[in-house]
Model the fold of this input.
Amino acid sequence: MADLLIELFSEEIPARMQARAREDLKKLVTDGLVNAGLHYASAGAFSTPRRLTLTIEGLSAESPTLREERKGPATTAPEAAVQGFLRSTGLTLDQLEVRDDKKGQVYFAVIEKPGRKAPEIVAEVLETTIRNFPWPKSMRWGAGALRWVRPLHSILCLLSDEAGAQVVPLNVDGIAAGNTTEGHRFMAPGRFAVTSFDDYRAKLRAAKVLLDSAEREAHILHDAQTQAFARGLELVEDPGLLAEVAGLVEWPVVLMGDIAPDFLGLPPEVLQTSMKEHQKFFSVRNPKTGRIEGFVTVANRDTADHGATILAGNLKVLSARLSDARFFWENDLRMVKTEGLEGMGAGLANVTFHNKLGSQADRIARIAALAREIAPMVGASPDLAAEAARVVKADLRSAMVGEFPELQGVMGGYYARAAGLPDAVANACKAHYSPLGPSDEVPTEPVSVAVALADKIDTLTGFWAIDEKPTGSKDPFALRRAALGVIRLVLGNGARVQPTVIYFKSIANELVRQKINQDPTVQLGLMEFPKVDDSAVLAAVHGLKAAAFDDALGRLQSKDVVRSLVDATVDKTNDLLAFFHDRLKVHLKDAGIRHDVIDACLAMPGNDDLTLLVKRAEALAAFLKTEDGPNLIQGFKRANNILTQAEVKDGVEYSFGADVKFAETDEERALFAALDTAEAAIAPAMGAEDFAAAMAAMAALRAPIDAFFTAVQVNSDNPIVRRNRLNLLSRIRQICLSVADLTRIEG
Amino acid sequence: MSPSPAAPRSFQEIILRLQAYWASKGCAVLQPYDMEVGAGTFHPATTLRALGSKPWAAAYVQPSRRPTDGRYGENPNRLQHYYQYQVLIKPSPPDLQALYLGSLEAIGIDLALHDIRFVEDDWESPTLGAWGLGWEVWCDGMEVSQFTYFQQVGGHDCRPVAGELTYGLERLAMYVLGIDHVMDMPFNDPAAPIALKYGDVFRQTEQEYSRWNFDQADTAMLLQHFEDAEAECERILAADDTDAAGRRIVMAHPAYDQCIKASHLFNLLDARGVISVTERQAYIGRVRALAKKCADAFVTTEAGGAVA
Done:
């Protein structure tokens, strides 16, 4: 058994790539060794800005000898066949064995692959790893052809066991492996030799390099917290920044400074963003005031003046940066006070949102109209929602957001308050972008909800209108995220929205706009088309398009053009609804609801009301977990199968007329009674959307249905009795299907 | 490392020390290119010489113009005309980082007291069809240089790879000299009989050019000049490479001059605010197409490494 130490020493590796590179190095090398027949006990990978390191313990000394037997042609086979076998095995005729087989004598090849020594395998695997390393971006340097993330300077490759350490002979494009490395670039220049991983790690520490990024992170966090605490302040933790900073230093030295009083009036988000983005500073907060009052920077060295020069330099850069930020902030505030927030956004008319979907200003006008329409459904004032929609994106024209795009919405909130707009409007500036991801919080303030929904629905219907839909892994306009946002906004707020008509009209509006752009002469009739009433829209979407629209469109001049647009809008609306259903399934699957349960509920009318849909799905999922659930489904399916077969055979539909007076058995009569009871309970429960009560009432049918099928033969010789029993089954079907489409439940 | 020399006292002393340092490291110290460019990279000593197989080592100051950065001389850090110091060595030597750090010591930065960091920053010039990987170099949190290993220029792979160093001279000098506003920076020695500050040399020109760049430049004329430069560049490159006397002379440099002109005219038009977001990409694409053709032509010449 031996231990292996590998270090790939280069110029500075981008911090963001280090974690992935550590894992890749470990995986590629260990996989390579194992595939070559070696085994090992454990492996660990490390990185600093200038090195990737891998340590492997308990590596076997050589790979096992492999013996392979291959059966060849019969000894009597034609010469060509024997020659072919020799070629494929690489043996000569006298090396083959002749053995007895059922059909006579045959040639056998016994190929022995001798085991190989670990150093040979390590050299081969490491060279392959270096040449094929999956850096996100790699480069060449000097006159060479080798690629690495930045110029690769040295390779340390050492195998050590009880007998001592030996360098694995390896040379990659002129870089020969050795047993030496370098310490800190400035604090401990020069190369030194190592004998093992422990020796390597200890000597690096003496040479001012902390090998393990986790140790550097812990050190930075501890010192930053301690220094902040000593001044009565607290560190604003930022794990992403911590990992990045730990990837920029080999010898972290934490320095804390104060933000000059001139800048303390800036919004904390501005201070934090400016310091983080430009200088990779942590923010330090005063817990009493909540203000950001200090910063932490992490240097890469100790100095004789204990970092005084470094801190002074950083403060100088910070003050130049914050002067810029304050200039933007003051200019923006001045503008908002004179022109209003809507005035600040005036320039959005010149900013293209998408070349087919017009400018940002066009988009804002659409969102305002949508927000007004959606507002009553989520309990918001339509006027306030429309007002908010008109200003929530105005900060995109502010100097501050121009500099820090990630502050969009946040700055809008500040500027809205400065402009004297109501809180509901100011809050919507940031909240209307939410939720941004599956874990982002969902806004709850009604005005924010209305605008957030309008924003996402406009995005979706717009891109659906122009056929820019996500395909495979490509979703450049983040439409999946927008759809999930709509789903989470609706469900998170328990909102009762039936958006089919909204989708239809938005898509229709967009198609009409595009059509008019192409051919202004059709304008008059087209303008009427999105104004058709809701019932006609719903009828059209649900497949009755021609009839539903004929009355409404009868008097229009451009009827044929409109008809083709109606058809296109209907198709796109249905396609968008199907997209929503897919996203919903993904979302609910994460919440533990099976896809067939969702399908069973999606088949019911009003399925675009997501809150209702989920309520139904949750009740059904809970029902299926009870003992009665799956059994009732079996009974229902049996009834449904018998009935469907009979209907196909007889060519009629057995849908009503079951009469208890034709019942012959107690079980039959009991089922009649149970159905009456269930029906009486289910109808009002459904009316009250109390799906749990409806399912409970349905569950009560399980025993009578089971008893019925045990005791009663449906296909009686008496045609009257048979028809009556089929009609009885039909009642089971009707009652069950009124709750959900149980035919779609699997199992 | 050698002990740091005494601190420099003026802007020009920093430039002179860089010149002396890179000369001592074997670079040919060239003079600025005599045309308006946006950055030192545009100098043909970088753009064209980064191409082809011939070794190259040059250092020079390049006055650079970014019309949109004009602030009428009022902003402490922003100028529409400023200086870059540029070093290009091909193939990039293995100790380029150490050479670079030596140059910081040469201008008085004590590496034992300061925190120097190489922070990922990949360089790309859409107008030159060029890109490379490298870092911005931080001194105590301030970006003092750009360090790039060129991978492609004008759409051609760089083989061998050139290492490029670019110093923003005003910013670096202000840091070294401890100056807060660029106009207050000593240009020559403060003890000189006629001591001049940066503002004495450039405040008025910053005002004049800011006004011209933003308000006065004749956009119709600039557009016409852009078209003319583009047409001339293409005409030059399309010309027969053999002249009347039967000599093969590919006119890569005169064509590239027109490409530089087009690029600067585009920057002026941009400052005048007459280029929309969508048009912007189209203009950049047109300049890139010229740069690419110039690169195509250069690599067929002797300096471009073509074997006669």
